[in-house]
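Trying the structure run again after the queue cleared.
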Amino acid sequence: MRINKKENKNQIAIKKFDEEKLAEELGEVIQKKDLENYAEGQVGFFSYSDAPAVIGGGSGHFLWFDSYHNLYQFLADYFVVLAPGRYDLDHEQVFKKVAEIIQQLAASKISTTAAIKKINEAGKDFSQIEWIGELKDLTEGDSEFAKKVREQFFEEKKTDQKKINKESLNDFINFLSGYGF
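Done. Tokens:
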């Protein structure tokens, strides 16, 4: 049987659920996924912990990848351990549900917006994804998230600037490195 390479490229492999092992792997995998290692053309996502604020909920971060496929595979593999949910929840069920949604997204069966909504419903009390895209989406995009991030950047810089230009791009990237904490 011959496999269509394009079709195979969009397939997301689902790991066997072993929460302890996934959490250990995450520590290694997550290194070099932040903006300090950002390279032009990478894609990323912003997520935050959906736990109560008292135990660190609400704090978030950006992670960056070489391709959408690698980003989607990361989410399928590690979403549940990014910000582990309450102990009384069925973590394996959430893992499987999120992986199924990511498979649909990677196969272009649902939009990014629809996928984020479904992932956030499935991942309640774990992580919540607020944005998936390219840096250009944040510097020029019209999404509410992009506007909010730029507005906070300009407020912090105390400038009337409305766009992120080449001169302010490095400052913006540095700002994003601490965004969500």
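Residues 91-106 form the longest helix (16 residues). Worth checking whether this holds up in the mutant runs.
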